[in-house]
Each structure stands twice: as structure tokens, then as C-alpha cells.
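ok so for the tutorial part 2 we go from a plain amino acid sequence to predicted C-alpha cells. step 1 is just haveing the sequence, like this:
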Amino acid sequence: MSSTRPGTPGATRTCPHCKTKILESANVCPSCRHHLRFDPDAVESAKKRSVPLRVEGTIKPPPGDNALEYSVVLTIRNDEGVEIERQVMGVGALFAGEERSFTLEVEAVEVTGYRAGRGRSRH
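step 2 — the prediction. this is what the C-alpha cells look like for a chain of 123 residues:
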């Protein structure tokens, strides 16, 4: 769980369905997409969400009979370049004629009614 007080930006909890660490404010788990609570303002909430970063790519093994092993690693750094989280998201191998596509998205939502500088999270 988060070291941030419940109700503050960045506070986290565990999804009861898939056990992934998610934002406490989430109405839908971004990992398993299960609904976590009723949101009467779902349409309005969706308008506040944005995707400030989206990266897509595809890899293929080199020509020939060689396989290509891969590891998908996600690293998050703060504004000073200090690593605050690193996770291996998946591993695998590709053989001749195969390919894998990857998409990284950062979803964001503006937090209203919060004054900057109070109870700031490390993340």
C-alpha cells in the first residue's frame, strides 16, 4: 500500500480482483478492467482522463533460424533521475516468422481540490 494518506493524490490500494497496486481513486482497475465502485459521473470522469504518453513498437527475430529472447522492463524515475520503481512486465521468446507488439500508455487524471505542496507523495 501507499505511504500517502488515503484520499490524497497518489494514494494506492490493491485491486480485490487481480491484486495489482492501483490508485485509490480508480473506479475501474487499469489492469483487469473490473469495476471497483459505482461512478454516477462516469462520463464526466472519462473526460478528465488523458494519455500524455503512448509508445508502440513491434519486434521480430533476426533473419535465419535463431530465436530472440526478450524481457519487457518498466523503469520509473523522478524529476531528479532517481529510479523509484522498476518491474519486469513480461518475458518470452520469438521464433522465425513471429512478432510481438508492445504498447506503453500513461493514463492521467487531474486532481481537483488539492493544494500543491501539502502531503506530497514520493511517487
